[in-house]
Amino acid sequence: MLATVAPIVARSRPLPPQALQGTAPTGTVPANVLEPLRAMAVTMRMDRDAEIVAQGDPAGYCYLLMGGCARTVKLMEDGRRQVGEFLLAGDLFGWEALEEHDFGVEAVTDVTLLRYPRSAIEALADRDRDFARKLRALTAGQVRAGRERVVLLGRKTARERIASFLIEMAGRIRGGGTMIGLPMSRTDMADYLGLTIETVCRGLTQLRTRGVIAVERSKIVILDRRALGIASCEAVH
Amino acid sequence: MLATVAPIVARSRPLPPQALQGTAPTGTVPANVLEPLRAMAVTMRMDRDAEIVAQGDPAGYCYLLMGGCARTVKLMEDGRRQVGEFLLAGDLFGWEALEEHDFGVEAVTDVTLLRYPRSAIEALADRDRDFARKLRALTAGQVRAGRERVVLLGRKTARERIASFLIEMAGRIRGGGTMIGLPMSRTDMADYLGLTIETVCRGLTQLRTRGVIAVERSKIVILDRRALGIASCEAVH
DNA sequence: CGATTGGTTGACCGAGATCAATGGACGTGG
DNA sequence: CCACGTCCATTGATCTCGGTCAACCAATCG
After folding, report:
1. Which of B53, B72, B82 to mutate: most A Cβ within 10 Å?
2. Which among A45, A226, B110, B152 has the fewest CB atoms less than 10 Å away?
3. d(CA A92, CA A171)
4. Angle between helices B129-155 and B118-127 (to 10 degrees)
């Protein structure tokens, strides 16, 4: 319900093009695919931990992340939490909703995003063949990513999940070399990987003591990419 | 590679319309959405346990299940197996592939399916607005189902997974009332739920001794739908 | 500087995996 | 028609990975 925070800034216009960089595999919008809808978009800036979409919100809009990081979350009534995915710049969320958003979206860092009416996306897909094609490619990628996550959560051990996560993030966070600045907390990582925070810590520690990575708070350096790949069961891919 | 079995029968034509019934949530093709492509389709009949698509096969075709049940599987090199989804009549597989199919597909029972060139699907989506719309709805459903699976595998207990599975199958297998004729083995169930076969057995036994279900080999009767919902954490939906 | 928050480590416990045996349904051949 | 073998489901015994509970530490913030 966009309650506490959520200052909607203004109709969009400029915004530097490099804001669309970053990420890769998930639901990344190739370039300025949504450019034709710029006029329909509302730019939003949200503070860290703000709720962008509440689980169960009527699904009138979808969201394109321009900068920062967000998480999609499902909360079970007994408090168990599952992070569905992390959204980075260029990622689109919510166009596939039915009546309501089945996951909430929360800002992991301060974020900038564009909000589009879902109906506009659908209408554009109807009249713009090229856009429709890109949208199909986009969701096909989401389906594939979802399957990969099913394997991770269904069959991989805690260590393998953590190693896989680091590899995924190293690929998505463009920012030079082997250093990854993880935007999310250990709790978020744990809820993404179906683990507890303690297990995530221990897994990172183990990788560190084995010389595979260096850890300093949220900065992680991959020292031995090959070993990390082995630890993640990379051959599965 | 369609190696051992896989007798491709003939160009398609008739086939009773009720063959398209069944299932509901996943990637079900609403009705005869692919009807315009009938001429491009090849009908295949495969025996139980035949490999329809091998993991890693070049992704030239996609498949519409007409009858029977199939499973999508990912095999890790150390033998761990994950079933991605069960396909029932009306379910479409493979149009979202990239270069290769990242999951294999195997027949759970004897199956009948139609094979379409992926390029034909793409071309039809390009020229037929209505089909494109249905294809989007279809994949949106797949994305949502994938997320539900992530919650199941990431946060639910063994008992909850099993109860959720029974509810899912009760909804998908149209066949009158509360009796479910599960087409798949306990092993398949376990690999779908990220469990072992023993845990699946014990979970079913527990539900049985509590009077929630009756079990007789692959026939399962839901005696107390409400209790089953509670056991599955249904409120999450 | 305390106080709060998030990360790390240790001790212990339990859900589910592993190992092993048994049972029941079905198919084949005598 | 029955004996036997195979396959699969079920149940029991034990082990282990990861969860739980708890303490501690380091960074950030008033």
Report:
1. B82
2. A226
3. 18
4. 120
B178: which 2 tokens? 């509360």
Contact A2, A47 (CB under 8 A): no
Task: Kindly report the nearest CA distance between residue B122 and chain A, in angstroms.
Answer: 8
Q: DSSP class of residue A128?
A: -
pLDDT in tens, chain A (237 residues): 333 333 333 333 333 333 333 444 455 665 577 888 888 999 999 999 999 999 999 999 999 999 999 999 999 989 999 999 999 999 999 999 999 999 999 999 999 999 999 999 999 999 999 999 999 999 999 999 999 999 999 999 999 999 999 999 999 997 667 899 999 999 999 999 999 999 999 999 999 999 999 999 899 999 999 999 999 986 544
Top CATH class, A2-152: mainly beta
Q: Which residue has the tokens 């295949």?
A: B44
A156-231 CATH, one of 1.10.10.10, 1.10.3080.10, 2.40.240.10, 1.10.3720.10: 1.10.10.10
Mutation for testing the B interface, residue in A96, A118, A157 having most B CBs under 10 Å = A96
Q: How many CA atoms lie within 13 A of B134 on its CB side?
A: 16
Per-domain residue ranges of chain B: 2-152, 156-231
Closest nucleotide over all strands to A197 (CA to C1'): C7
Under 8 Å between Cβ of B109 and B48: yes
